[in-house]
Amino acid sequence: MKKTKRILALLLTVIMLCTGSMSVSAVTQPTSQEAWNSYWTTADEEISAAVMLTPGSDDSERYVSWYSESDSGSVVLLDGEGAKIDEFTATAIKTHQGDYRLCAVIDSLEDGASYGYYCTSGGWTSETYSFTTISENRFTAMYLTDIHISADKFPENSIRDTAYNFNLMLETGVAKALSQGKSIDLVISAGDQASDGMRDEYKGLVANRYIRSIPFATTVGNHDKKSADYRYFTHQPNTADMNMRSYVGTDYWFVKGDVLFLIMDSNNTSVTDHRRFVKKAVEANEDVKWRVAVFHHDLYSARIPSRESENALLRLMWAPIADEFGLDLCLLGHSHYYTISNVLYNNKTVEATENGGKVTDAEGTVYMVSGSVNNPRNDDDVGLSDNIGHEYLTDEKIYNLIDFSEDSIVINSYTVESDENIGSLTIEKTSNEGGHNYKTIGRLYYPIVSVIGFIANFFTNIGDYYDNRQLGFKIPLFEGLFG
Prior knowledge:
By secondary structure, the protein is an alpha+beta fold.
């Protein structure tokens, strides 16, 4: 009965999602470039508003944000039959451009329910979108990275065309999940959503209707911080109170099902802040079984040798945090090469993984990197670091469906063009304890690394401040340096 209700709720979502400019058939077969171009032209006002649905603290909440000329607005929540349930007032954040990003929190949502909503501000009212909540501790997330919506990748219509590639991947993933009797309940991006971090790129990012119906968890990447727009575009729960924050982002967490997601800004090298954030999030969710971190930078791939010194610093920062707090899985990006590591502890393999394999009660962390949506790399000149894991090289676009349940995390990776399953891994846990064996880091370790991280972060933020001043963004220097 629960499965039947879930499928009915999914079908209702699909129907509500695809009303208007895009047809129901778009969910079951990829939209053509021609159809996308037509949608791009006719939906100009809707695209400009850039409505985005993001996770709340747990599945009883959703966050909604959009651009508006007005500093006041609200989100109207509807039941599955379109009747008004409630109205939620939005908070206004003034942008560099002089208008506003409006942010509203929808709360008190029921498990396994379907809802509609629309946004209103000034004299503007959006179309009606929809979403569903999960009914049990079982859901499917779509993980991808390095989307790179770009203003200059192609000679003309670059944002439109890179946004099309992202939309195509989402459509393909939704169709794959439907064919397996599932829905995609969360989209996770491990950073570099935009190539230059510009507002028009972020508008292209959320031009598709899926991101208005499936909560979209983004991570700040090194390209996102090329301008200050990312900090105004995003709306996130449980953000970290950091002493030494980076220029555009911060850490945040949310819970879905039996999974604690820790979304972190790896541009920020303040180890003390990140560790304190993870500690607080874990302590606030001690009864949550799985711990999944998402941050942008790849730690272990050797395919870009010039980045190895950067990777060494990042491993110094992040691996001890993963070890200490028993993180089960880290989802990364940056290198644009698809890899799944062995189970690692203290930067060493404690258990090997293999394609199609399974690990049970792992005493370490699995690190995964997916290929780029718009800039895939396929260079066989340099191999993966010895004893790290396995990889797959391709020029095709890669997406990953991750099934989370109380007992397992099941990863399956596919190519968009050939629909090939290129990799899979199952992580099982027989206990109900969160994370895995808790490891205590040496007392002197964090103070030493914190000094290194503080210095690196200080000079990085100085550079970001200068770059943004050159772009005309008038932000006080220390607003970007300190929380």
